[in-house]
Amino acid sequence: MKKKYKILLLILMVILIICLGYRLIFTIKANILFGANICTCTGTGGPAGDAITPWKCNLCGNEGMHANTAVSKLCDRCALITGRCARCGHIKNYIYKELRRSL
Asked: Does 59 reside within a domain?
């Protein structure tokens, strides 16, 4: 019984390390691409043309189509993983406030 638990624990630890490493890699890449600037997006769309526009996520390379020409810098998954704004790629304001609070 103990051997089974040790193996299960080892497998879970490996999965955890892989998941944390995955997030860390994307966070480091986002810091290199976009820096440590704070997002100033207002939540309203800016000027955009009416055209179906192909776009590519700057972190993972995921490709897609967007309904207008104001395409995002990051896909929703990468924005969620790194805590950044999908539209501009900068750090979300609430993430910045949490970082300041922890210092």
From this structure: yes
Number of domains in the chain: 1
**Phi, psi values for residue 31, rounded to 5°:** -65, -35
pTM higher than 0.70: no
Q: How far, in Å, CA of 80 to CA of 61, rounded? A: 15
Question: CA-to-CA distance for 33 and 52, rounded, in angstroms?
Answer: 26
C-alpha distances out from residue 103 to 50, 59, 73, 100, Å: 45, 28, 29, 5
Q: What is the pLDDT of residues 2-19, one digit of tens each?
A: 888 888 888 888 888 877
The token pair at 73 is 């810098």
Span 34-69, pLDDT tens digits:
888 888 877 666 666 777 888 899 888 889 888 888
Domain boundaries, position 90: 2-37+51-102
